[in-house]
Amino acid sequence: MRASKWRIAPLLTWTFLVWISRVRNVLTDQDLEVAGVAWRLGAAGIFLGLAAAVLGQLILGHQGTQQLKWLATWSIGFWLVRGTGILIDSNWSFEFKAVHSALMIVTFAMVALAISGPRLRE
Q1: pLDDT tens readout for residues 14-30
Q2: DSSP code of residue 89
Q3: Which of 42, 51, 56, 110 could form a disulfide with 15 if both were Cys (CB 3.0 to 4.6 A apart)?
Q4: Are 111 and 75 in contact (CB under 8 A)?
């Protein structure tokens, strides 16, 4: 594995851990209605699908540049919209906001690491 691929591994690991955990939480939450389950699983599915596409390209020996750009863009866009929504919504507790702020910040850091360097200058 080339050194540049090692910059992507933390983002992929983080994405799989966070969003597989999210799927499990959604599927075990008895308080969610069908629409709530659907949009949460849809968002998680996009994250997991994009991460799987990047991983697949890397396993096949390809650069996976386009898939990485899609994952990076989706990750940043999702957390800017959803994270901001959580932070400004007075219905969420401080603890909930703190946890999701941490998830957002770590995601941004993992994206920055993954897209840094010469990898995306093709």
Answers
A1: 999 999 999 999 999 99
A2: -
A3: 51
A4: yes
